[in-house]
């Protein structure tokens, strides 16, 4: 099975080369989920990577409250629990040092032209506005809950 830095670099270059297709696919899937929630009058909460990374305790408290459950500090201390799924060996130091890490590699690795294309995409902007989300210098953020306020 491929792995390591060479594989990651290949995947990143593939993503850049086919950005329009990847963006379209993600957008269509998110819009499909949104329509399903609207049609069935279901509530949902949105959490972005940026918001969880910037304020893990605050976001987990908000999400747990929405779920009707109590927040426990151990929920944000993921290094104290066995991990399931993929393992990023380049980030073993996070678990070893027991720290939270806000990964901003995209700021350096994603070309400015690519960032501009995503930000200028009309369909992306329309969807983000509907979802009450937007971009900041450090990523995508939730302005406020779109689903629990609009579709309940």
Task: Write structural notes for this entry.
- It is built from 9 helices and 2 strands, in the order H-H-H-H-H-H-H-H-E-E-H.
- The protein has one domain.
- 1% of the residues are buried.
- Strand 1 (133-136) and strand 2 form a beta hairpin.
- Strands 1-2 form a two-stranded antiparallel sheet.
- The chain has 152 residues and is mainly alpha-helical.
- Residues 146-152 have low confidence and may be disordered.
Order of helices and strands: HHHHHHHHEEH
Q: Write down the domain tally.
A: 1
Beta-sheet strand percentage?
5-15%
- Class from secondary-structure proportions: mainly alpha
Helix count from the secondary structure assignment: 9
Cα separation of the termini: 45 Å
Principal-axis shape: globular
**Low-confidence region ranges:** 146-152
Helix content: 55-70%
Quaternary state of this entry equals: single chain
Q: Count the strands?
A: 2
Reported for the largest beta sheet, the result is:
2 strands, antiparallel
Strand order of the largest sheet: 1-2
C-alpha Rg (nearest Å): 18 Å
Mean pLDDT: 80
Q: What is the structure about, briefly put?
A:
With 152 residues, the chain is mostly helical. It is built from 9 helices and 2 strands; from the N terminus they run ααααααααββα.
